[in-house]
Amino acid sequence: MKALVFEGTGRTAWREVPDPAIVDAGDAIVRVDAVTLCGTDLHIVKGDVPEVEPGRVLGHEAVGTVVETGGDVRTVRPGDRVLVSCVSSCGRCAPCRERRYGQCRGGGGWVLGHLIDGTQAEYVRVPFADLSVHPVPSGVDSFDAVLLADIFPTAYEVGVLNGAVRPGDTVVVVGAGPIGLAAILTARLHSPGLIVATDLAESRLQAARRLGADATVAAGEGPEQLVADLTDGLGADVVMEAVGVPESFEACVRMVRPGGHVANIGVHGKPAALHLEELWSKDVTLTTGLVDTFSTPMLLRLVVAGRLPTAGLVTHRFALGQMEEAYDVFGRAAETGAIKVALGDPRHTAVQAAG
């Protein structure tokens, strides 16, 4: 089969690799019908995730069709259309029993495209299939469903829930990429009073306004002053970091009010300063986290009910074999206007013209 292979810092290739096979009785082999790229994939290619070794097939988000299952799999069978979660769960270890699936100690957690071969391929082996894939209702488009593999549960769990968004809160989202936009959409489920988004790219600020941000400001045009003006100098109740660079994290800490929450979502490749000499007396709660995906079934139900709009997040569609072109477009998002890039096998999923 063909797959997108990491070949070292700055290098990938769409090339032939061996087909995946059942290794453990809980595995499923899934034919990839729709797949998407993640900012974390860009971090890997840049060398920010050193545990990803050359030769690894990248990707941790997909919708596909089960083609084979191990003897212990009970919840899905060949022919089922499923969402492949970005996090795998053994279901037995102490973290999994607390629904902290991202911290699985039984061989799961974030393994796809990280510690084992991932989803940016024609086929993928999914471990612990009973808990790591979700049947997709027939009325849900594959390109909508694939957004629930990672960005929506990540934004909701690591941003909205960790940030403890409450009705009436002032919420600031720093970074209006896919995760930040999903944070805006899922924060709205909790009825905040005001949502402010900031980003470097005007195209992403336009998307933020379209998806529900009440105010937007370019990163270089005084977001901290705007937040101060909107809150009578107090600061925001919740600030979410959705970029993953020191400057954005440090800006989040400056914008939060005493007693507020800073929810870090971004993947950081470099140290960021934590000014405890300023924070120690402010009762600020700072959270970090890897998504656990316990919210995925609920989010799927909201999509089916029409309560969680996903249209508009996928800005570019490609055929599966155009993986390297898709990476180029996604990696130059400020120039291309890309928000979320999705790819599909034209034999199984309708794919529009590239770009």
From TrEMBL:
**UniProt domain Enoyl reductase (ER): residue ranges:** 8-343
Q: Which residues form a coiled coil?
A: none
For this UniProt record, give its keywords in alphabetical order, as a comma-separated list.
Answer: Metal-binding, Oxidoreductase, Zinc
Q: Required cofactors, per record? A: Zn(2+)
Has keyword Cell membrane? no
**Metal-binding is among the record's keywords:** yes
UniProt-recorded Gene Ontology molecular function terms: oxidoreductase activity; zinc ion binding
**Short name of any one Pfam family annotated for the protein:** ADH_zinc_N
Q: Which domain of life is it from?
A: Bacteria
Instruction: State the signal peptide span.
Output: none
Family to which the UniProt record says this protein belongs? Belongs to the zinc-containing alcohol dehydrogenase family.
Name used for this protein in its record = Alcohol dehydrogenase
Q: Which organism is it from?
A: Streptomyces termitum
